[in-house]
Design goal:
2 copies of one chain form a homodimer. Chain A is of the alpha/beta class. The first copy, chain A, has 7 helices and 5 strands; from the N terminus they run βαβαβαβααβαα. In chain A, 52% of the residues are buried.
Chain lengths: 227, 227
């Protein structure tokens, strides 16, 4: 099997990072199967971006899977808790969604096994981020090991690889990578707490990190902010 | 905090094993929060059993969470593939659902963190079973380690325990345990492929293992079978 015909599952939130990660998979010659989880997030609008990105990248299949994590709550993204707007802090913020990346990667693994794909792309990075534990390399490495114990394919010696092409990039690197890959940053959505009229708030961690990245890279992000 | 006030999340499919596992948690003094996943399984009828068991055990909260794994397929339980009826084989059978226990445990972990519970009960056992990789002790141990890397609570030193009270029991042991705990086996549902009239088929692996267990234990299972 040549690399051109290999399939990859891409976890596509609709944010800048997942867009760039998916485009890197496409550049490497993978055929793409995209998974987006509609977890009843406050910023559901990112699902529209995921759809647009999937179309632009010409994926083979795009599954938007409803999974209502607001039934669990425990996060500013899934419960009635205010999204912090005062800047990126040192602690893990309340926008952390309990076990989210583990849940999403597990789903991605199930889809990979069902579609006979062995590569999974996720756009995590642990430099310009909010300190979420499930974005760190040691979590990803642990998941990769567990994937082989958790599955029939892994048990039969045909294991899975979790690809994290953005792991060691700054947000400025990611912004530059988007331009290099011919992506329009405006296709993607980062804001956690959209203002009326569907404009990014410009103040949440996710808006701040995005703005900082484009500024440092000296690239104009066509995204319009409310503030 | 006394053990009486501790909360446990119990993964409750509605089958015999998850019923007994949950009742053991109750016996140990935990307050129970039950999670049942409606994954569009062929034997959706088990959801009714889960509801009955949750009521009988007096759980604090019972979440039945829709998650349509038939969008992925790849299993006789979620796609148009026949359920084997000729007896338990050596290979991992087509009733294996890709990454199911990893997906379910990940969800349970998210719920545990959101509800500030640290114990998770799952009714896996690896003696009288269908050889599913995600029922084995090494998978559970791997998950427990990863849970601490995947979560804010784990990162802050307050880790999770995956309790598998049935891990080393035979099906006969589990049948005896059900009776000892005052459970009516008929509350639970095991069959993968219910016949018309909502009767268990009596021929799938799950029916066979259940029948064998009660027979070996010398206990009458009031469940009526179609064959």
């Amino acid at each position: 099997m040549t690399s051109e015909s290999r399939k990859a599952i891409i976890l596509l939130s609709g944010g800048l990072d997942s867009m760039v990660s998916a485009a890197i998979a496409a550049e490497q010659g993978y055929r793409l199967i995209a998974l987006t989880v509609d977890y009843n997030q406050r910023h559901k609008i990112e699902l529209q971006s995921a759809q647009k990105i999937a179309e632009k990248l010409g994926v083979d299949e795009h599954i938007i899977l409803p999974l209502d994590l607001s039934r669990f709550g425990g996060s500013a993204l899934t419960a009635d808790i205010d999204v912090p707007k005062t800047g990126v802090a040192d602690d893990i913020p309340v926008t952390y969604v309990p076990a989210r990346n583990l849940i999403f990667l597990s789903l991605t693994l199930g889809l990979a096994e069902a579609r006979d794909a062995r590569d999974i792309f996720i756009g995590v990075n642990a430099l310009d981020y909010s300190g979420y534990p499930d974005c760190r390399p040691e979590f990803i490495e642990g998941f990769e090991r567990l994937a082989d114990l958790a599955t029939k394919a892994g048990d039969q010696g045909s294991g899975f690889t979790i690809q994290t092409p953005l792991q060691h990039m700054t947000k400025a690197d990611i912004a530059r990578e988007a331009i290099r890959l011919g992506l329009d940053p405006a296709w993607s959505w980062s804001c956690y707490d959209p203002a009326p009229g569907d404009l990014p708030c410009g103040l949440c961690d996710s808006c701040r990190l995005r703005q900082k990245g484009f500024e440092e890279a000296g690239i104009v992000d066509p995204t319009r902010y409310v503030t």
